[in-house]
Specification:
- GO terms for molecular function: 4 iron, 4 sulfur cluster binding; catalytic activity.
- This is Coproporphyrinogen III oxidase.
- By secondary structure, the protein is α/β, with parallel strands linked by helices.
- The protein has 15 helices and 18 strands.
- It has two domains: 46 residues, no CATH class; 323 residues, tm_1862 like domain (pyruvate-formate lyase- activating enzyme, Alpha-Beta Horseshoe), CATH 3.80.30.20.
- β3 and β4 form a beta hairpin.
- The longest helix has 28 residues.
- The structure holds iron/sulfur cluster.
- The site of iron/sulfur cluster has 11 residues, from loops.
Length: 503
């Protein structure tokens, strides 16, 4: 842990943003505001001054040989108190970032941005019809973002708008996320609501009873208000862990309950774990015209799968992929993870080579945080975790591989507090992009979550403010309270969509 002493600021609201920026450079940082200076590893002094409408900040990092003064400034004219604070925070953050860049020699390509969804910033400019060069310049100046990342975002947004030309008008519709919290076994690194299907967490059939109820009620509400569904996404857990009969009944319920199912632009079912895919389940998917599925190898190195507790073989992934193709699945996504324990450039190249033999319609490349990678390894001394440079090298390999094979990046998200300040990128063959992923990532539409652990996001039609609402994670709690949770969601929907109507 790096302790950084900050002098010259007293507002506690700066602590968290400064820690987030510090974490881009060091594994874990703590900002010392009031503690004695002697405890600190680094010492930063800020001088702030308001001259006219301008907020000027000077930062000095004592440990730098030559005294470095990094200035930030903000124009405070005609702003509310909240906006003034935001501007000051930005100016302080920029000064802080510049000092740490100089001290460590690391350059942060995302600048001071530590949020999960950077593309939203550029979307905002596009919606306001800011000329492109002006929008890019503002990202450079306001956040110190690099041209490389700005270009990546522009490429992604251009692709999104090509696939969904009416993206900015879709707030009058909704998307639906359906959470099925079961998996054959629990993987070591899993952070999702996922319970072993044969465990003691409450029976699958009573969970499905609750889920059918929610789908029916939400469907009734949508029909009554004449609101269409853009996309449906079955996630979890692994939605294909339930039996073929249960899947059949569930999709039948979807057809009976939801409005205009034939017009839904995309229905995806995650079939992440290849050990859950069977011919009869694939036939059920086909019966209901569900053609986008996700089969996730994560890695093609058997030893890695073993280390992370995934109880299936590499061959099984490949076999199930071919089986899905045989059963007519023509839009398959595969996930790879960079930075799994024991994996470096060589293993990742092997995964890319294997992917080349399959050529799924889309490939999502995730990066794992170092901390998480070492935590999830049962045998820590045996599995090394790649360092920052190697991780970056692997990301570059993914970029080059996808470009060479005509995949385009179409969504990205970042993770907070991880060394290397990385991003996860969804690549796809043209016109095979997942519309749900775009809707979810850009937060331009309400997403209603039903089922276990499903979170809903209600987007305020005027201000764009997001209200989150989560269903219980545990199947037993869900079974006891799904009626109450459905009522609460319908109340939130009424609130948001009556505003939309009164606009
Ligand atoms: S398959 Fe996915 S959801 Fe299921 S336990 Fe593994 S990581 Fe978690």
């Amino acid at each position: 842990m790096k302790q950084i002493y900050i002098k010259g600021l007293t507002d506690e609201r700066y602590i968290r943003p400064l820690e987030h920026i510090g974490n881009l450079f060091f594994e874990d940082t703590k900002v010392l505001y009031r503690e004695p200076e002697e405890k600190a590893d680094l010492h930063v002094e800020f001088e702030t001054e308001i001259i006219g409408h301008e907020f000027i900040v000077k930062g000095k990092l004592k440990e730098l040989k030559e005294e470095t003064i990094c200035n930030g400034h903000a124009d405070l004219s005609q702003l509310t108190d909240k906006e003034i604070f935001k501007q000051m925070k930005k100016a302080i953050s920029k000064s802080y970032l510049l000092m740490l860049q100089e001290y460590t020699g690391m350059v942060q390509k995302w600048g001071i941005l530590t949020g999960i969804r950077p593309t939203k910033l550029l979307h905002r400019h596009m919606q306001k019809q800011t000329p492109i060069e002006e929008a890019h310049q503002s990202l450079r100046e306001e956040y110190l973002m690099s041209d490389e990342k700005i270009e990546l975002m522009q490429k992604i947004i251009d692709r999104q708008l090509a696939v969904i030309p009416d993206l900015y008008d879709l707030k009058k519709e909704v998307s639906i996320y359906i959470g099925i919290p079961f998996c054959p076994t629990k993987c070591a690194y899993c952070t999702f609501p996922a319970y072993a299907i044969n465990g003691r967490q409450g029976s699958v059939s009573s969970f499905l009873g609750g889920l059918h109820y929610e789908m029916e009620k939400i469907g009734d509400w949508l029909k009554e208000k004449n609101i269409n569904i853009t996309t449906v996404y079955y996630g979890g857990g692994t939605p294909t862990s339930i039996s073929a009969e249960e899947m059949d009944m569930l999709y039948e319920r979807m057809h009976d309950s939801f409005p205009n199912v034939e017009n839904i632009r995309e229905i995806t079912v995650e079939a992440g774990r290849p050990d859950t895919i069977t011919p009869d389940k694939l036939e059920v998917l086909k019966k209901y015209n569900i053609d986008r599925i996700s089969i996730n190898p994560q890695s093609y190195t058997q030893q890695t799968l073993k280390a992370i507790g995934r109880h299936h073989t590499v061959e099984e992934t490949i076999d199930k992929y071919h089986l899905a193709r045989k059963h007519g699945m023509n839009n398959i996504n595969m996930d790879l993870i960079i930075g799994l324990p024991g994996e470096g450039v060589e293993e990742f190249q092997y995964s890319l080579d294997k992917t080349e033999e399959l050529m799924p319609e889309s490939l999502t490349v995730h990066t794992l945080s170092f901390k998480r990678a070492s935590e999830m390894t049962r045998n820590k001394s045996r599995y090394k975790v790649a360092d920052r440079e190697e991780i970056q090298e692997m990301m570059k390999m993914a970029e080059e591989w996808t470009e060479k094979h005509d995949y385009v990046p179409y969504y990205l998200y970042r993770q907070k507090n991880i060394l290397g300040n990385l991003e996860n990128v969804g690549y796809s063959k043209k016109n095979q992009e997942s519309i749900y992923n775009i809707m979810m990532m850009e937060e331009l539409q309400t997403v209603i979550g039903v089922g276990c652990g499903a979170s809903s996001k209600f987007i305020h039609p005027v201000t764009g403010k997001i209200t989150q609402f989560s269903n219980p994670k545990h199947p037993k709690t869900y079974n006891e309270s799904f009626v109450e949770y459905t009522d609460k969601k319908i109340a939130l929907l009424n609130e948001h969509f009556s505003l939309e109507a009164s606009k």
